[in-house]
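Proteins fold reproducibly. Look at a concrete instance:
___
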Amino acid sequence: MEIKKYSIKEVAKMLDITEKEVQNHIKQSDLIATKIGDKTWVSENNLNNFINGVRWG
């Protein structure tokens, strides 16, 4: 089963915010992302958690 994942650019477009804002949410651990090679990906599950206000830590 493949996990659906989105780039920072895709997440920014879906949330109608800038890519920098997405990166800030990732740095603040509000949005969980995974770096694979030189790309950063957000899983569909982590994006849904962020949208629904689930906080980590």
Notes: The chain has three helices and three strands. The first strand starts at residue 5 and ends at 7. The two ends are 28 Å apart (CA to CA). Helices lie at 8-15, 19-27, 44-51.
